[in-house]
């Protein structure tokens, strides 16, 4: 079945079940672009997803027809955007062939999201897959440089639990591109977006309850500052906050321990050079 642009077709099939059990729905999501059609199907009952399956057709040929397996031994394969559509077909790079993008979730209270991108390889006449794990954070598409190709605008999951609890953690912006079958971190190419995120992190650090446990948010702010080459001024500002008793410490017992922890972490994760 072909529809113009992207389309979703949801079929519902009620199976035989014990009295009082939740009905099972068979869901089929369909996305189409040009001659490429992708179908993502699964069964849904009682907040549980089973039997995830992906089919990709190019013209009249079925090139992918596979059950989806969990990435980890304890994970699941759930649609990442349910009840909205989790599959799309769109061009992510400069070649004329569109990619199939499937957003998934492996279960847990707030983790983990991941995306599988299927790219057509002309030399082999088949699709190759690349998986990118977002973790506790999600992403959105945006054409930040107005070149007609979208970036994946996300955040850095490595900051989760690093300086404080998950609820108090801050996540600096992280921007990815997909080219030639690979994801690349292109965050530094977009200083306007980084500065905007830094202002948000700073604002969140001093509102409500976050003022007493703002180490995670200030760490994310410092990371943003380092991306735009303002590391030294950022640490000087953190020292001012310490003297003003406006610096929450999170997991670290002293300001000195927090500064040491933050500096080493930013060096290890590439935000700060030695």
Question: What would your notes on this structure say?
Answer:
By secondary structure, this protein is of the alpha+beta class. The chain folds into 2 domains: 1-135; 147-274, no CATH class. Helix content is 20%, strand content 32%. The protein is built from 4 helices and 13 strands. Strands 5, 6, 7, 8 and 9 form a 5-stranded antiparallel beta sheet that branches. It has a 4-stranded antiparallel beta sheet with strand order 1-2-3-4, with no helix packed on it. A hairpin with an 8-residue loop joins strand 10 and strand 11 (151-155). Helix 1 (191-204) runs antiparallel to helix 2 and helix 2 packs antiparallel against helix 3 (231-243). The radius of gyration is 22 Å and the shape is globular. It starts with 24 loop residues before the first strand and ends in a 6-residue tail after the last helix. 32% of the residues are buried.
